[in-house]
TrEMBL record:
Name of this protein: Lipocalin-like domain-containing protein
InterPro entries named among the record's database cross-references: DUF6252
Superkingdom of the organism of origin: Bacteria
Length: 135
């Protein structure tokens, strides 16, 4: 849910509109989720990225730890870009929780929630975000 409304991948720009990857051998375990949607016929998309480093087990990772995890959201229709790593211009809080990390079965699952705020742009509040992906 993004600001109380369902937000799911939608449309296609020639690349997958939903991609989750995990590399256990890079930087102590690297997680990356990238998704986008075209909410209307304007041709302008919304893009969401979640990432985490040093992730080797299930657990909760805070987006306030800028060295190990982050979130970014871009809305090309409004021109607003938010990035948790930009602590000068963007306020961010939230968590990424890995609920299942099974390298033998090649499955990663989890949930996330976060808030992003930036002067001149609407506050973005994501609740009940989730993913379940075969790697």
């Amino acid at each position: 849910m993004l600001n109380g409304k369902a937000w799911t991948p939608k449309g296609n720009n020639g690349t997958s509109n939903y991609d989750v990857s995990f590399d256990p051998t890079f930087d102590g375990g690297t997680f990356d989720l990238r998704t986008y949607r075209y909410p209307d016929k304007s041709g302008k998309n919304q893009y969401l990225i979640l990432y985490a480093f040093h992730l080797s087990t299930s657990g909760t990772y805070s987006f306030s730890n800028k060295r190990s995890s982050g979130v970014s959201y871009t809305d090309h229709k409004t021109g607003c870009e938010y990035a948790s790593r930009d602590s000068i211009n963007t306020y961010s809080s939230g968590t990424l929780t890995i609920t299942k990390l099974d390298l033998n079965q090649r499955i990663i699952s989890g949930k996330f929630e976060f808030t992003l705020a930036k002067p001149g742009c609407d506050t973005i509040k994501v609740t009940d975000g989730r993913f379940d992906k075969k790697l």
